[in-house]
Amino acid sequence: MTLSVRDHDVSAHFYRSVLGLQPQRPESRGGPRQTVFQLPGGPVIELVQHQDNFKGRFDSRRCGLGRLTLAVANPGVLEAWEDRFTRMDVEHTPVAHTAEGSTLVFQDPDGTELALFVPADPDTDED
């Protein structure tokens, strides 16, 4: 998954310091600035700053990515992320609990909406 960013350095710092991701490939030379992060057991996130980008924040009303949702192992891990975001002054919503699971929503420096999600335990009650 590739995310276009306004400021490569600011975004790469966010993904490293806030989410704890480590770059997997060096930035390209001569083309757009980019960094690739491999999520543990999951997808690759590539940040790209195009030389002619429009410098505007992400707007979810435009076609494109609405939200990037990443799974976490359990509700305790989700709560730990919420505490981390609070300590780091990362704007976020409180964890929302629904029948489907629990979600913690936040934004990266460009306004791209990100979420951490843990599915609800399936109902194991037998009749």
UniProtKB/TrEMBL annotation:
<protein>
    <submittedName>
        <fullName>VOC family protein</fullName>
    </submittedName>
</protein>
<feature type="domain" description="VOC">
    <location>
        <begin position="1"/>
        <end position="119"/>
    </location>
</feature>
<dbReference type="InterPro" id="IPR004360">
    <property type="entry name" value="Glyas_Fos-R_dOase_dom"/>
</dbReference>
<dbReference type="Pfam" id="PF00903">
    <property type="entry name" value="Glyoxalase"/>
</dbReference>
<dbReference type="InterPro" id="IPR037523">
    <property type="entry name" value="VOC_core"/>
</dbReference>
<dbReference type="InterPro" id="IPR029068">
    <property type="entry name" value="Glyas_Bleomycin-R_OHBP_Dase"/>
</dbReference>
